[in-house]
Amino acid sequence: MPVPRKILIMAAPLGTGHKMAAATLAREAARQGFAVVTADVFSFLPGWLGRLVLAGYSLLLAWWPAGYALMYGWGNRQAGSLRLRSWLNQFLASRARAFLTREQPELVLVTHATAAGILTAYKARYAPDLYLAGVVTDFVVHRWWLYKGIDTYFTATETAAAQLRQLAAQTLPALPEVLVTGIPIRRHFSRMTYLYAREQFHWEPGTLVCLLLGGGAGLLPMEAIVAKIRAAYPKHLQLVAVTGTNTDLAASLSKYPGITVYGYTDQLPDLLIGADVVVTKAGGLTLAEAVAAGPEIIIYKPLPGQEHGNTAYFTGQGLASLARTPEEVLRYLQNYQRQPEPERAARLHKRQEAARPLAAQDIIRRLREKEAAAPGKQAGNFL
C-alpha cells in the first residue's frame, strides 16, 4: 500500500477566515488521501509576543480602524514595507526550521501572506525543490502575497487573478501559475437546502429571517441594528445574531424580544442557508460562504483594507448591498421584502452563479494532479 504524501497546511490567527480556510483544506486533503500536518505561524513566535500581536491587532480593528488602513496601505505601496517583511520572514523561517525539518512535508499550502513569507524564505535557503502554493482568502490581493518561490496561487475570482498577475509582473522575475478556484468553504454549503435548514430551527414557512454576523470577535454594532429593525418589525420577523467571542454583546442582545443569539456555533452554515437576509462584515471567507448559501447580502460599514476591496467587488458585481448606518440596513431589509418574486429570483440566481462551494475539493484535486504529473520530484528534500 503506497505511503500517503505529506502536506503541510499553514495559517495565521489574524482573523478567523484564514484559519477556517486552512481547516477546511486540511479536512479535504485528508479525505483525498494526503497525510496532513497543520501549523500556525504564531507557534513560531515566543508565546508572549504572539499574544501581544494578537491583542494589538484586535484593539486596532476595534478602536482605530483608520490606523489599520494606514498600515494596510503602507504595506501595499511603500518599498520600506518590503524590507520589514523580508526581515520578519527570515526571523520566523529560522524559528520554523526545526519543525519543518522534522515534518518534511512534500508540499505546502498556505492561507495567509505571513505564512507564505516564512515558507518562501525557508525554501530559498534550505529546500529549493519544495512545492509551495498560496490560497488567497480575499477577493482582492495585497502586495505582501507576492513572493518568488510560490509555485501556484489559488484565487477567489478572475478579477483577483488578474490583479495578482499584474502585481507579479511588477515585482517578480517570472510569472507564477495562477488558478481560479474560489475561496475554500465547508462542504456543508454544497449539501444543505433552504427548506431543510429552516426546519432545523423551526422557522415557520414565509417568516422573514434576518441573520446578523459580526465575525469571530462580534465586531458588528448589532445592538443599534437590532433596535432599529425591531422597532419597525415588532413581529413577523425572526432575528438571529452570531456574536462570536463577544459575550457582552450576546448578553445585551438577549434582552430584545424575538431574537435568537449564538456565540461561536457549528450551525453557521445552516443559519446562512436558511436565512433570507444576512447583515455581515466583509471578510473574504464570510462573503464566500454567504454567496454560496444564497441569502440577500447586506455588508455593514466594512473595515479599511481588504474589507473595502471585498465590498467593492461584491457591490460592483451586484452580489451585495452596502449599508453604513442602521437606518440603511432597515431600508435594504424593507426593499427586499417589497421586491417582486421575479426580481428576488434573479438576484438569487446571480449569487448562485458566483458561488464556488467546491473550492476546497478543487484545490486539493489540482494538487493531487500536480503530484501525479511529477512523481519523481522530491518536494520535501530538506537539507
Verbal overview:
It is a single chain. The chain has 383 residues and is an alpha/beta fold. The protein has two domains: 6-185 and 358-373, Rossmann fold (3-Layer(aba) Sandwich); 188-354, Glycogen Phosphorylase B (Rossmann fold, 3-Layer(aba) Sandwich). The protein is 51% helix and 15% strand. The chain is built from 15 helices and twelve strands. The protein has helices at residues 16-31, 47-63, 65-77, 79-103, 113-126, 158-171, 194-200, 222-232, 247-253, 268-274, 284-293, 306-316, 326-338, 341-354, 359-373, and strands at residues 6-11, 35-40, 107-110, 131-135, 152-155, 177-180, 208-213, 237-242, 259-262, 277-280, 296-300, 321-323. A six-stranded parallel β-sheet has the order 2-1-3-4-5-6, with helices on both faces. A six-stranded parallel β-sheet has the order 9-8-7-10-11-12, sandwiched between helices. Strand 5, helix 6 (158-171) and strand 6 (177-180) form a beta-alpha-beta unit. Helix 10 packs across helix 11 (284-293). The longest helix has 25 residues, at 79-103. Mean pLDDT is 87; it is low at 377-383.
TL;DR of this structure?
By secondary structure, the protein is an alpha/beta fold. Helices cover 51% and strands 15% of the residues.
What are the key terms here?
383 residues, 15% strand, Rossmann fold, 51% helix, six-stranded parallel beta sheet, alpha/beta, 15 helices, 12 strands
Alpha-carbon distance between the termini? Answer: 28 Å
For the secondary structure, the number of strands is: 12
Domain count: the total is 2
**Which stretches are low in confidence, meaning pLDDT under 50 for 5 or more residues running?**
377-383
C-alpha Rg (nearest Å): 21 Å
Beta-strand proportion = 5-15%
Number of helices: 15
CATH fold type of the largest domain: Rossmann fold
CATH architecture of the largest domain: 3-Layer(aba) Sandwich
User: Helical amount among residues, as a percent range?
Assistant: 40-55%
Strands in their spatial order, largest beta sheet: 2-1-3-4-5-6
CATH superfamily of the largest domain: Glycogen Phosphorylase B
The main pleated sheet reads as: 6 strands, parallel
Q: Regarding quaternary structure, how should these chains be classified?
A: single chain
Which structural class is indicated by helix and strand composition? alpha/beta
